[in-house]
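Regression test attached.
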Amino acid sequence: MTAVTTITLGGLAVAAALCMVRLLRSDTIADRIVALDALLVVVGAGIAVGAARTGDGTYLDVLVVASLLGFVGTVTVARFIERRGT
Amino acid sequence: MTVVDAIAAVLLLAGAGLAVIAGIGLVRFDGLFARMHAATKPATLGLTLVFLGTMLRVESADAVAKLVLVLALQFVTAPIGAHLVGRAAYQRGAAATATDGVDDLADRDRESPPTA
């Protein structure tokens, strides 16, 4: 099972790196917030895989907080774009 | 490796694969809406697969409850967030470049920006 979670974490790391590429290369705020959202999902999946690796669910509390904060951030930036542009 | 572990492994790997595909789509697709299309797959399906795999591995019931809670929150908030970002970008003219000038919403009255 450790080998499986290692491969999974590696795949998630690749996905996170690709999200970072989009985050750094985009030219609008909307592109960046989409990439950040995807990055948060990847990080959340990584935390869950970490719990699956150890069988210990302590860090799953972080997931609850992070997903809620991510949603609030997305809504905030979307409203900022509507008012200020790009 | 038991049968449950094998199922968990398949679910985890499938979820990670979806995340990688979304990352490739984010980098290679042109335009905001195409990228949103790619990015929203792991936000629900990928996360569901990974969490189901994790639920099979963690022992305690409250860990499973937390995963279900996060999944429910994600299923509620992900479409709302994507809708808000898409609407904001559309109002700022993202559709003109994303769809080769085709804009099916052009003849509708533009929704005025929120005042609150």
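Expected vs. actual: identical. Chain B touches chain A through 56 residues (CB under 8 Å).
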